[in-house]
Amino acid sequence: MNGNKKAIYRHLQRLGYTGGYDAVKRLVREEKRKRNATTLQTFSVSRRKIIALLWKPQQEYLEEEHELLRHCISLAPPLQTFKSRVQQLYDALNDSTAKLFSKWVQDQLSDTTSPFYRYAQRIRSDLQAIQHSFSSPYSNGRLEGQINRLKTIKRMMYGRAGLKLLEKRILYRM
């Protein structure tokens, strides 16, 4: 019966209940707690965990990661398509030739509903340089990483302390 505690108490009295109102109130409160405890168990997973699972090669999944991903896909079926596109990108980036990557970009450009469509458009403008990066053993990744680190330190230090502390922070990891 849906209703407040007094309505439940009156209904029970009509059925022949001779006990007190406090006993009914306590019983209703306990029953509500039990119901809420079972209905409030929700499924939640962090965005970071989902992204890590999508980017991780499928053969490296642990059993609980397989289960988690299956559950997420059952709740959001478009995630399956997204996962396959991410895995294709992962394979293309780890391939030593640019052929697979170029094919991936073309596949994304041919489907305007692809979540990577705009990304592929931006890549297309610089595709030749990206293709050369597959064949060249040289990389400026370390330099870009240092520049990014310096900019982060600069942002953190803006308006704080002095030049000595900034210098110590910059030289700390070099």
Tell me what you see in this structure:
There is one protein chain. The chain is an all-alpha fold and 174 residues long. It folds into three domains: 35 residues, no CATH class; 89 residues, no CATH class; 32 residues, no CATH class. The protein has ten helices and no strands. Helix 1 packs across helix 2, helix 5 runs antiparallel to helix 6 and helix 6 crosses helix 7. The longest helix has 19 residues. It is elongated, with a radius of gyration of 29 Å. The N and C termini lie far apart (71 Å). The model has no long low-confidence stretch (mean pLDDT 86). This is Transposase.
How far is the first residue's CA from the last residue's CA? 71 Å
Poorly predicted runs of 5 or more residues: none
Tell me the count of domains.
Answer: 3
Beta-strand content bin: under 5%
Order of helices and strands: HHHHHHHHHH
* Count of individual beta strands: 0
Domain Transposase IS204/IS1001/IS1096/IS1165 DDE: 22-169
InterPro entries: Transpos_ISL3, Transposase_DDE
Protein name: Transposase
Pfam family, one: DDE_Tnp_ISL3
